Structure formats: C-alpha cells, structure tokens
Amino acid sequence: FEYGFGYTAEEVGLRGPGTTADLAGSREGSPTRSLVVAYVKSAGAPQLTVRPPPDGKSSPLWPKGLAGNDVGSKHAYRLWGEGQPGGGDYNIGPPDPAEIIVLRPTRIQLEVREPAPAPVMAGVPFSLNVEAFPEGTQAGDTPEINLYWTPTRSGANVDNESTGGRSHRGPNKRRVYEIHPTFPDDPAFNDPFYEGRLQISGRLHEVEVARLLDGHLVLVYPRLKIIPAPTEANAVPVGITLGGGDIELGRGDRGCAEFKLMVTKGRTDSQGEHLLPLMTHGDAYPLRINLDSTLPASLEDALITVDGTQLWTPNTPPTTPTWSSPRQLSAKQLTGRPHQICVQVGQVNKGDDVRLQVSFVLDEAPFNQFNEVITPFTFRVKVAEPTMARKLAPLICLLLSLLLLLAMARLARRRPTLPPDLRYEIATSWSTPGPPGSVGRDSSTGNLCFESASVALRPRIEGVGPLKFTTHSFPSESFITKLFGLTPQHRLTTKMGDETLGWVQPVSAELFRLRTSGAIQLDEEILVSKGGAVLLEIQKKYSTQKNKNQYHFRLVYR
After folding, report:
1. DSSP 3-state assignment of 333?
2. Predicted TM-score (pTM) of this structure
C-alpha cells in the first residue's frame, strides 16, 4: 500500500485491547480507505476488529474482502471503507498486545507563491517556489515527494516532462520546493510573447498524490542574447595603439579600451541575428551600465567613463549625467559601432591589478529582470606602484603639519625676550696677571651666584684713567628662534666686535643670564657660574678677561 498506492504509514505503537486511533489523520478529515495493520506475538491466527466511534456510522469494507490475517507473518489487516468525516477516534481491537500501524492515502495540495503571470525568457531557466501541504489544511507535516513539471502552450506540450528540485521546511511545517523550469523558444511565433502554462504534479513512490490545478501561468518572451567582443580588454594609455600589452597607469594617467556589442540570439533573417523591437520603446533601446562591485582602494579616486559619459565618479552625488540612468540608443548606436571605456587614475596608494566587471541592463520589462540578456564586460586596469616620494608624501605632510602646530604653540606661549631699549656698554683696559686669587665662593645674599665651583683669577688692573664705555645694541632675534619659540640668545661682543664675550638670555624684565666660558667679576667678587652661566643685573659693572685684555661691561636702558 505504501509503495503501490502512495500511502503514508504511521506507527501507533504497541497496544492492547481497547486501543483507539485517528484513522483519518485529522479530526476534520475522513478515514476513507485507511488501512489498519496489527502485528501480534501470540500463537495462532491474529484477529483484528475496527469499530467506528459511538457517534460515527459503520461503513462497509471497500473493496469487499480487504480484511484478513496471516499466521506465518503473524499479522492481521483491515481496510476501512467510505467512512464519515469528523467521526473521532476509531476503536481497534486486537485480543493481545500488538504493534499497530495505520496507513492512510497521501493527499497533498500544491501552491505557487509567485504572482501570476510571471514573465520569463525562452531558453533561460527561471526559479519557482512550490509549496506542498496536506490537503484540506493550511499546515501539517508533509512527506517528501518528487515534483514533475511540463511547460505547455495552448494546451499542447512543448517540452518533455522534467523533475528535480530541492526542498526545505517552510512556515507551518509546509515543504517548499525550488524548481528551475525552462520554456523553449519558438521561432515561428512572431508575437512579442506567448502565454505558457507550467503543469506541476507530485508523486510519492511513483504514485501521483498532488497536482496543481490549471497549472501556473507565465508570459514567455523570445530569447535575446548580446555579448561584448572582446569580453575582456586592458586599459591602454591614450596615444598607444589599443590592444597593446599590459601597461601600468600612474596618478593622472588615462587609459581606454574598445569593445563592440554583438547580437548572438534575437530575430533571425537571411543576414543573421538582429535586435528585437521592444514593446514600450520600439526601435529605441534604453541601456544602463553599472559596476558590479565597489572599486578597490587603488581606484577609489578614479574617473571611469563609457562613450564619454561617466560610469563612476568619486563625487557624491555626481555633478554630471551618468550611466545609472538609462540612455536611449538606436540599434546602430547599441550594436552597430564600437564602445569605448576609459579610466583616469586619481590618487594612488598602492599598485594593483584590477578587473572591473561592467554589467549592462536593457531597461525594458521583462528584459531588465534577466541577467543573461547582455554578458558583462571585464575591464582590466593595471595601476602602477607609487614612487617613494608619493608613498612618503602623506607622512611628510603629517610631519610638516605637526611641526607647524608645534611652532604655533611655541609662538603662542609666553617666553622672556630682551626689552627693545636694552643696550650694553663695554670698555677695555690692559691687564697683567696678578697673584692667584681665591677660589670663588657660594653667595647666600643674592641671585648672582650659583652652586658650581668655578676657579678664576682675580687680575690686577692697571688703569690709565677713567674707563670709556661705548654703547652697543644686541643683534635681532633669529628666525629659527622665533619659529620654534626658543628663548633668545643675543651675542655680547667686544667694542670692535671681533671677540665674543658671551651670550645674553632674558630671565625676567630686570634679570639676565650670561653664558660664557670665562670668569666673570663683579666689583671685587668673582662670580661662580652654574653650567657655564651667571646672572646679570641692570647698571651693575662686570668684568672679564679674554686674550690678555680686561673687558668691562654693563646692561643699561637707552
């Protein structure tokens, strides 16, 4: 019964006298032609009785005689006939414990969820989802069946029967089958399309248990196939013969390639294949061109055009027309002359070998729903590795920006500078070395002495009259000092400017630091330096010795 008549078996289990079972498999169904089989373990011929529920009606056996037992295999069976629906559980009466199995006729309903009529193209497989569920219900476990389909036109088969399709569990325990039928092209059919029907049936163990009533209506359009020639080309710099070898493009370079769209399947005549006239646009063909994927980093700043119209632009939104909107082309413009695709490379961060997939869409229903109408074109662009200067340019710009920010920060901070009216006066006297003086000491009575132990000679000055001081200005602050916000150092020179006595740095408005390698004397006291520097105050006279000359200097305002 299961394999010969497409029945579905359900094991009720090991039961004894007084067992009840739903023969219909549904409270709302009918137990028509349900088969009950019992396997018993006791010796002798097994017995089996099946009685309707109290509110049900008895039915004669169908066909007559489909009841009995077999001693050898120890089983008994009974086929229930035309029962009444909604009768509830039936009483199954084996005298001894027995394995009870109920076999019911498999009744399945088919349903197509896609809207009808669905447009398809002849010769191209299309996807269709068919749902299967128990007849009379909208949900329930559905056994696995085999789907068969036959495409027809005007009631006549135009192709052989096909089978296959994968299934998965859908909502409400329905089983969903995905099939891929194909309607053949009919060269003798000159209308824009013809109505076809897909006859679908389901079989369980080669027994038909389901059929889609009236089939599924589809609108079949004639086959149209266009391919680019060549299907792949390299971007070649402008000025070089197209079709040249692999040539790399650098920043700002422009490379192009040419291809032609060839009709390989369409309207056939003595001169070959031609474009089909469209229902909406007639002899005008709306064409859209897209890139199938996002551009890699090496071309993200590139400008790509087809026949002079932008295909890709880094501007968002684009400021000029692009191929994202369909352009109306004549048959000659579409397939009668070559097309040119070009790329202008922008900023390049790394070299790359890019293959751009360019897709074409004939924007006329239903051809805009099919990817098989125009084969994509592959545009290959070899991007040159940037030079070392180009690679380091971002880093250099970053470093320069940081330096500029640092300079601005240093300029903005408060730092001591020499007052604009500060001058120094200097006088010279000859001197001869005297006896060694005392070692400089630490002073605890002012800011003029420091901690380091610097040894200096206290020379004997042989004056020849009053000292004659001459006034001098300090040199201007250097550009580098201003740029980096450094504390300025101003050169203090002799009267003739041929000897450098030290470098003066501002500490505050009235206090300055002198950096020098020689000993500095204030009146009769030798100042002790720290790190080669001593502090100077306004109007105080200091002296130092250099190259056997004694120099006297002081800071004044003028």
Report:
1. helix
2. 0.55
Here the tokens at position 112 are: 């197509």
* CA–CA distance, 140 with 25 (Å, rounded to integer): 10
Average pLDDT on 52-64 reads 52
What is the count of structural domains for the chain? Answer: 4
CATH number, residue 264: 2.60.40
Output the pLDDT for position 537: 86
- For the chain, counts of helices (H) and of strands (E): 3, 43
Same domain, 74 and 161: no
What percentage of residues in the chain have a pLDDT greater than 70? Answer: 71
pLDDT in tens, 494-528: 877 678 888 898 887 778 888 887 778 877 677 76
pLDDT confidence bin for 276, thresholds 50/70/90: confident
Does 412 reside within a domain? no
CA 150 centroid distance within chain: 42
In contact, 305 and 257? CB cutoff 8 Å: no
Residues 442 and 453 in one domain: yes
User: Stretch 194-218: mean pLDDT, rounded?
Assistant: 87
238 and 376 belong to one structural domain: yes
118-121 vs 216-221, strand pairing mode: parallel
* Domain range for 533: 422-557
DSSP 216: E
Other CB atoms within 10 Å distance of the CB of residue 12: 18
Order of all β-strands in the sheet with 352-362:
232-234, 377-383, 352-362, 285-291, 327-329
Measured distance CA(343)–CA(310) in Å, rounded: 10
By residue count, the chain amounts to 558
* CB environment 447-469: b (16+ within 10 A), e (fewer): ebbbeeebebebbebeeeeebeb
Question: Can you tell me the distance from the alpha carbon of 440 to that of 476, in angstroms, rounded to the nearest whole number?
Answer: 34
Q: Cβ(259)–Cβ(235) under 8 Å?
A: no
- CA distances from residue 191 to 123, 188, 274, 534 in whole angstroms, order as listed: 16, 9, 16, 108
Q: Is the pLDDT of residue 272 over 90?
A: no
**One domain, residues 235 and 332:** yes
**409 found inside a domain:** no
Q: What is d(CA 272, CA 268) in angstroms, rounded to the nearest whole number?
A: 6
Cα–chain center distance at 338: 34
The stretches of 15-105 forming alpha helices (DSSP H) are none
